[in-house]
């Protein structure tokens, strides 16, 4: 009865979703692509797959860009374990879908995640008939999980995390979310804390396999490119605001104006001869690139945009105050270029972005007070000396400038970053083996199927 009411509400909300997609499609045309897929209508045939012959159809759902990058790490390990597998890749955002295209091989299929109406979820599963499903990180949808259980499609939540705040939300809606978590065949959590919270939300068969993002390796071509760019800067240091979110760029830009820099620079380094840094801003969401450029120019800063050159910065870029990293898939380049990175999402109450890639590139990280999305990784990085916690943006800029004057301290953080990233690897192989076991066993407990089909 409870899920029936939810299903009715979701069905009634479909016109609102279509309007939302139309609005977002103005800035991001990718949202206008293949809209009928959102509602379970497909022109793409099911990929040829034969689980008995070791060629299963593995469904991976990665809602957005970060999840797609984590899925790429798992997919590499899965293809090694299942060389004949076919991939069904789904997303919820245009950036995730664009990134996901790079992961496809002949015989693979990419479509939108179905809207969580009962009919759309049912059409999706009946059309593609995946042999196993893997949801990345946090994506739990009541009708989709229930339909997987009803149609005996083993479904796991991989690289799973659940913040205390999200647990509270799940518990407030426990009448709906508890059966959804219980319908999962397996949950592979990043940390013990995540595992405890996922169990409290209703998940069963929970184990801790670690964070896939530790298995990401920096792109060597981008690292080499960063070295060439650093040479072109002739020793000018680079301070980066990484994966910034709305509200953070404004704080950053106010702090890097010359009067603000004079006020925030620590007394110990005011008399040091330090070249004015090149300020590098890499926004998290591409639809905001233009807005951030306009904000910087409104502050009277000279801006050079990465999108305006190819392999090397434009001739006048070295004279700019700010470089805008308005590209996708180049975080290894940016982290390898920067002397210090300020962690986006942590200076507003947004939970922080992934700091593991920065550490793997040997880039010291300064993080604000809000890192609940990556709480364990942030704690480990700080304990190992790869990252430092600061109170706010002003403190972050002051600390960054101090680090520019402290080469030994900066080198120590770089070394700690390498060690921190290396110490927690192995989740990809463990998770891939777990997918194979789930696929082999086709183990969806009957009790879970019955509960899911009843809606709790």
From TrEMBL:
EC number: 2.4.99.12
UniProtKB keywords: Cell membrane, Lipopolysaccharide biosynthesis, Membrane, Transferase
Catalytic function, reaction form: lipid IVA (E. coli) + CMP-3-deoxy-beta-D-manno-octulosonate = alpha-Kdo-(2->6)-lipid IVA (E. coli) + CMP + H(+)
Biological pathway: Bacterial outer membrane biogenesis; LPS core biosynthesis
Swiss-Prot/TrEMBL site (Transition state stabilizer) positions: 137, 213
Annotated InterPro entries: Glycos_transf_N, Glycos_transf_N_sf, Kdotransferase
Compartment(s) where it occurs, according to its Swiss-Prot or TrEMBL record: Cell membrane
One Pfam family hit: Glycos_transf_N
BP-aspect Gene Ontology terms: lipid A biosynthetic process; lipopolysaccharide core region biosynthetic process
3-deoxy-D-manno-octulosonic-acid transferase N-terminal domain span: 35-216
Enzyme kind, highest EC tier: transferase
Family: Belongs to the glycosyltransferase group 1 family.
Protein's recorded name: 3-deoxy-D-manno-octulosonic acid transferase
Protein's organism: Ottowia oryzae
């Amino acid at each position: 009865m409870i899920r029936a009411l939810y299903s009715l509400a979701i069905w009634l909300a479909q016109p609102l979703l279509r309007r939302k997609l139309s609005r977002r499609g103005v800035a991001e045309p990718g949202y206008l692509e293949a809209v009928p897929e959102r509602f379970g209508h497909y022109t793409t045939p099911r990929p040829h797959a034969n689980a008995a012959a070791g060629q299963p159809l593995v469904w991976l759902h990665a809602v957005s860009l970060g999840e797609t990058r984590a899925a790429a790490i798992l997919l590499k390990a899965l293809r090694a374990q299942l060389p004949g597998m076919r991939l069904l890749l789904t997303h919820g955002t245009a950036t995730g879908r664009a990134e996901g295209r790079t992961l496809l091989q002949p015989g693979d299929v990419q479509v939108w995640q179905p809207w969580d109406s009962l009919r759309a979820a049912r059409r999706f599963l009946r059309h593609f008939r995946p042999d196993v499903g893997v949801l990345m990180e946090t994506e739990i949808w009541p009708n989709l999980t229930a339909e997987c259980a009803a149609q005996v499609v083993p479904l796991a939540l991989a690289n799973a995390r659940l913040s205390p705040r999200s647990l509270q939300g799940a518990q407030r809606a426990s009448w709906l979310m508890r059966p959804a978590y219980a319908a999962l065949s397996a949950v592979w959590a990043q940390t013990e804390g995540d595992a405890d919270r996922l169990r409290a939300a209703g998940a069963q068969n929970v184990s801790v396999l670690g964070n896939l993002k530790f298995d990401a390796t920096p792109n060597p071509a981008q690292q080499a490119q960063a070295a060439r760019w650093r040479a072109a800067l002739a020793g000018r240091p680079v301070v980066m605001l990484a994966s910034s979110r709305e509200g953070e760029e404004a704080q950053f830009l106010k702090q890097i104006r010359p009067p603000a820099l004079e006020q925030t620079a620590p007394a110990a380094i005011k008399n040091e001869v330090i070249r004015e840094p090149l300020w590098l801003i890499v926004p998290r969401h591409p639809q905001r690139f233009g807005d951030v450029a306009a904000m910087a120019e409104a502050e009277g800063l000279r801006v050079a945009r990465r999108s305006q050159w190819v392999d090397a910065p434009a001739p006048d870029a070295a004279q700019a105050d700010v470089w805008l990293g308005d590209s996708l898939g180049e975080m290894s380049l940016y982290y390898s270029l920067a002397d210090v990175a300020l962690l986006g999402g942590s200076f507003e109450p947004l939970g922080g972005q992934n700091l593991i890639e920065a550490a793997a590139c040997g880039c010291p990280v300064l993080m604000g007070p809000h890192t609940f999305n990556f709480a364990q990784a942030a704690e480990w990085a700080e304990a190992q000396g790869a990252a430092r916690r600061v109170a706010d943006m002003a403190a972050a800029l002051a600390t960054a400038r101090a680090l520019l004057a402290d080469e030994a301290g900066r080198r120590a953080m770089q070394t700690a970053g390498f060690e921190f990233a290396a110490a927690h690897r192995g989740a990809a192989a463990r998770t891939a083996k777990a997918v194979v076991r789930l696929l082999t066993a086709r183990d969806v407990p009957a009790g879970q199927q019955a509960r899911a089909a009843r809606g709790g």
